[in-house]
């Protein structure tokens, strides 16, 4: 595999300490071996791949899913568990300028539909994913950001919380107010993923772990996939690797996606008195209005989850510094909890696109090969939604996607050195956050 971060980023180090691993055991999937035939082969066992597998299996399609590592190893097993609006990093103004009013509205509706799809799958299949929160709340990190939230509220886009309301609403921290939308909810991402996997397997999907795809080549039935111990023939192939993609799997992906790190910590369970001391007693999931945002929520067991965008490099030393910075940010935002122990800290990769939009569609020049990725840190809902769309494409149907998600999927400048564009971008975002 040809990846653009150091080997450490793709190893066990960043995910050591992941809280979700302690909440549910991983299922026992075998390693792929020998000759395997399938109608559709899926590369990647996260939300996108598992959603595609489930939707195909419900249609009677023979599916083989290949996960390179252990079940739940990637971003889908270590994210913050926010099922919410998102998927793009474009502002509303830029979306309308690029896609027109109708195109922007279509993407906005897709965000809502993505959340609804997750809720439907959980309800329909009886998945216990520790769900909570009615919608989500954006909390203003500055007076200027609060003015923008007031304008949104005046336009009918949410319920406003002024600064003096926050403690009574159970959302108190170093904020200037907030805005709540009723779309979205929080969950345990590992329980959700493994719930999808259980249903997909029951419907006939063959799930394999520790089976990295090393090569995809044309074959008589469509495509031939090679792993260290298996050869898989499939009519269609879905690439669902997101931030853990490889430059050569397939080669068309090279330079078209940007992995970026996100880090998370979870505290020990807090008492009611400790929660009241800070004034945060709500189950509402929330994030702040910074470009380099923080996201956080009180979980059902009274642990507090806090996440932030991580570093631009990856090594044991960098990981330790990110954890220390995350703790400083947490203490500054929630000063009453400076003595509360963080029992778990970890990090993983989100995925960005040059045009700041997800891509779901064909791999040019390779009939029967499709890819879905670049959810900009909102993979719970958008990955699930994109997986369903990929299943439709594999069946020769219309994907049912807004045009904004159908490309173009342009390359970043500088090829494998493209991470060089990130430090100045992060610097600009950081400076803007202080205006």
From TrEMBL:
Gene3D superfamilies in the cross-refs: D-Amino Acid Oxidase, subunit A, domain 2 (3.30.9.10), FAD/NAD(P)-binding domain (3.50.50.60)
Keywords, in A-Z order: Oxidoreductase
InterPro entries: FAD-dep_OxRdtase, FAD/NAD-bd_sf
Superkingdom in the source lineage: Bacteria
Annotated Pfam families: DAO
Domain FAD dependent oxidoreductase: 39-393
Keyword Phosphoprotein: no
Protein name: FAD-binding oxidoreductase
Species the sequence originates in: Ruegeria aquimaris
């Amino acid at each position: 595999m040809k990846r653009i971060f150091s080997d450490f980023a793709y190893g066990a180090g960043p995910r050591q300490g992941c809280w979700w691993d302690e909440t549910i055991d991983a299922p026992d999937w075998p390693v792929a071996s020998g000759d395997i035939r399938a109608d559709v082969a899926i590369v990647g066992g996260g939300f996108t791949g598992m959603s595609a597998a489930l939707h195909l299996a419900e249609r009677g399609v023979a599916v083989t899913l290949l996960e390179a590592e252990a079940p739940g190893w990637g971003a889908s097993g270590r994210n913050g568990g926010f099922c919410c609006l998102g998927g793009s990093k474009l502002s509303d103004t830029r979306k309308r300028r690029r896609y027109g009013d109708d195109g922007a509205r279509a993407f906005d509706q897709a965000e809502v539909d993505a959340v609804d799809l997750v809720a439907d799958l959980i309800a329909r299949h009886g998945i216990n994913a520790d769900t909570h929160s009615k919608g989500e709340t954006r909390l203003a990190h500055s007076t200027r950001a609060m003015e923008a939230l007031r304008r949104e509220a005046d336009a009918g886009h949410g319920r406003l919380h002024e600064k003096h309301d926050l403690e009574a609403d159970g959302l108190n921290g170093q904020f200037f107010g907030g805005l709540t939308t009723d779309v979205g909810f929080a969950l345990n991402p590992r329980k959700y993923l493994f719930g999808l996997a259980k249903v997909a397997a029951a419907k006939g999907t063959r799930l394999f772990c520790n089976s990295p795809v090393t090569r995809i080549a044309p074959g008589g039935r469509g495509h031939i996939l090679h792993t260290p111990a298996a050869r898989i023939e499939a009519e269609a192939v879905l690439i669902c690797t997101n931030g853990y993609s490889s430059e050569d799997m397939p080669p068309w992906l090279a330079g078209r996606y940007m992995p970026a790190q996100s880090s998370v910590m979870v505290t020990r369970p807090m008492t009611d008195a400790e929660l009241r001391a800070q004034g945060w007693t709500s189950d509402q999931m929330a994030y702040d209005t910074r470009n380099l945002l923080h996201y956080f929520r009180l979980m059902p067991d009274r642990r507090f989850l806090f996440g932030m965008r991580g570093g631009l490099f990856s090594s044991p030393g960098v990981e330790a510094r990110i954890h220390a910075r995350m703790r400083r940010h947490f203490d500054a935002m929630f000063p009453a909890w400076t003595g509360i122990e963080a029992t778990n800290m970890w990090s993983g990769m989100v995925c960005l696109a040059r045009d700041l939009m997800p891509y779901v569609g064909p791999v040019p020049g390779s009939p029967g090969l499709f890819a879905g990725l670049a959810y900009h840190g909102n993979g719970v809902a958008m990955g699930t939604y994109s997986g369903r769309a990929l299943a439709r494409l594999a069946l020769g149907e219309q994907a049912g996607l807004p045009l904004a998600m159908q490309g173009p999927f342009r390359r970043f400048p500088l090829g494998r050195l493209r991470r060089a564009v990130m430090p100045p971008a992060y610097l600009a975002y950081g400076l803007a956050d202080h205006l």
